């Protein structure tokens, strides 16, 4: 997945996992605009900003937040994760993230602490 937005193949996979809503719904964003909303959600999750900080190009922040919350409660994000993980395994693409955290020398077993414990 690119930093900016979902690619066309990514969108084709995820689009099929979204809940289907009646065409005669009332107000609110139409399901056709889900791609922009997902891009806004992903942007917010990557950056860690408050929901109000989501750029307007993705839509209204409140709409994006409410859709995220509704999809989370419905298990849509879990389905996204499982499906994308399965696709990555099948295609041989893996993403491993690691973080190195340095600790104080006494916490790392440095001088002053014996290497064997009794």
TrEMBL record:
Residues 6-79 form the Insertion element IS402-like domain. Transmembrane segments: none annotated. It comes from the Bacteria. It holds the Pfam family DUF4096. This is Putative transposase.
């Amino acid at each position: 997945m690119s930093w900016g937005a979902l690619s066309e193949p990514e969108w084709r996979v995820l689009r099929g996992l979204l809940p289907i809503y009646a065409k005669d719904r009332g107000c609110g964003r139409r399901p056709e605009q889900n791609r922009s909303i997902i891009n806004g959600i992903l942007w917010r999750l990557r950056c860690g900003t408050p929901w109000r900080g989501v750029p307007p190009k993705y839509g209204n922040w409140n709409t994006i937040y409410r859709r995220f919350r509704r999809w989370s409660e419905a298990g849509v994000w879990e389905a996204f994760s499982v499906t994308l993980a399965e696709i990555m395994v099948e295609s041989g693409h893996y993403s491993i993230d690691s973080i190195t955290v340095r600790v104080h020398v006494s916490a790392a077993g440095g001088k002053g602490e014996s290497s064997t414990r009794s």
